[in-house]
Structure prediction request, 262 residues.
Amino acid sequence: MKEYLTIGDVSKLKGVSVKSLRYYADLGILVPAYINKETGYRYYKPHQLIIVDLICFCIGLDIPLKNFHNYIKENNVIDVENIIADGRVITQQKIAELTRNLCNIESASKYLTVNQEINNHIKQYSHNYNERFFLVKPWNHNCTDMSNFITQITNLYQKSKSYNLKITYNHGILRHFHKKGNESFIFLEVNKPDVLTSDFMIIPKGIYACEFFFNENIFKAEEKYFKSNQFSNGSLVITREVYQAKIESYTTPFEVQVFTLQ
Prediction:
């Protein structure tokens, strides 16, 4: 039996558990070259060690082992070129996902920094905003309807992924005043999309009159900004949640931004 390696030998040489080697055999992707019928001991040929390497390679690339059969051709020839090609695609997808995660981390950090600056203001102040882009959806509910608000905001976050957009974590409710009345939208601020569709609204740059509230004053804010029709044509009233670095569930503050055409 000198030409064979025991399952223990393979385990030690490749750093793969005996349990895993048995699992690969059950999948039919690493079948022992010989099994002693009396003892049940499993033996492998030295050339099978490369198959162990390729299986570990696939595991590292998140290629499902159930797909390993796709790389085994006639006469048990393993198509390494296709393994590498599939591995490259999966790795590129991982890099893209990690890049998006890093962008989201940077956005969250910036979001908290800006919010801390806002928190230092006293009630009313003004801020000069650059042009912004909102992913929007019509809002036909009361601004205190948190159940619907959370559901629809969650849907917008999911929708932003389909557009492959960088998010800013700024979200809330927008009122747009025009000649025919006013419309309300729930919004999520995003980076400039490659293609502007009806799902997006461009928010003009300019100086916005801002006011800071805590959630116990939400009804005061509602009376002042959401039930009032005193705003002129072209005005925007934006309400967004302002989370801090340490979140207290019972004191979520929010900011109201008002833009009026001159």
Observations:
- Helices lie at 7-14, 18-27, 49-60, 80-119, 146-162, 218-226.
